[in-house]
């Protein structure tokens, strides 16, 4: 017996239509899922700024052209009245007029003593230069003084051994004063080495006592500068 197919019972007849319909439904559901938006309920949250609650101090209100407060009233001064029966001490004002019994001294009668200032006078400008021993009869006492100073330095000169071995040399500037009594004082040195300075001071302190310099016939202190050169011979 031959089986016959029913055309209405053919499942493949509308397969394309079913496929397209399902595809459209899937795309529609995907689009709705992607575009779906939800919003929170505004009644559940407080959207106020509450600025007033954050202020810790009240803001003062300043009105323009406000006149300043009036000054406090000044208490009246209380004046105490002294009864006439109370004794009142009188203030005695002494007269500034001179007493005729006192002796009035004339300014011209007061003797003043002149105080001589102990100011040193330079060797160049002093009237009478200090006299080096041996220059008493010299005509040019300044030139004789410098010549004798040179001879004195050459006679007492001694090079320090340590500086000689180390090759230290240089010039020591010496400044000293010839005192009012002819002695040597206030010696100051400046040089490249302490031992060289000490040697220069030793030479100066060996200077003999001199005749002091004079200004207007009065002995004065006379400063004198003398360089001493320490140089090694090659």
From TrEMBL:
<keyword id="KW-0812">Transmembrane</keyword>
<keyword id="KW-1003">Cell membrane</keyword>
<dbReference type="InterPro" id="IPR037682">
    <property type="entry name" value="TonB_C"/>
</dbReference>
<dbReference type="Pfam" id="PF03544">
    <property type="entry name" value="TonB_C"/>
</dbReference>
<dbReference type="InterPro" id="IPR006260">
    <property type="entry name" value="TonB/TolA_C"/>
</dbReference>
<keyword id="KW-0997">Cell inner membrane</keyword>
<dbReference type="GO" id="GO:0098797">
    <property type="term" value="C:plasma membrane protein complex"/>
</dbReference>
<keyword id="KW-0653">Protein transport</keyword>
<dbReference type="GO" id="GO:0015031">
    <property type="term" value="P:protein transport"/>
</dbReference>
<feature type="transmembrane region" description="Helical">
    <location>
        <begin position="16"/>
        <end position="34"/>
    </location>
</feature>
<keyword id="KW-0813">Transport</keyword>
<keyword id="KW-1133">Transmembrane helix</keyword>
<dbReference type="GO" id="GO:0055085">
    <property type="term" value="P:transmembrane transport"/>
</dbReference>
<feature type="domain" description="TonB C-terminal">
    <location>
        <begin position="144"/>
        <end position="234"/>
    </location>
</feature>
<comment type="similarity">
    <text>Belongs to the TonB family.</text>
</comment>
<dbReference type="GO" id="GO:0031992">
    <property type="term" value="F:energy transducer activity"/>
</dbReference>
<keyword id="KW-0472">Membrane</keyword>
<dbReference type="InterPro" id="IPR051045">
    <property type="entry name" value="TonB-dependent_transducer"/>
</dbReference>
<protein>
    <submittedName>
        <fullName>Energy transducer TonB</fullName>
    </submittedName>
</protein>
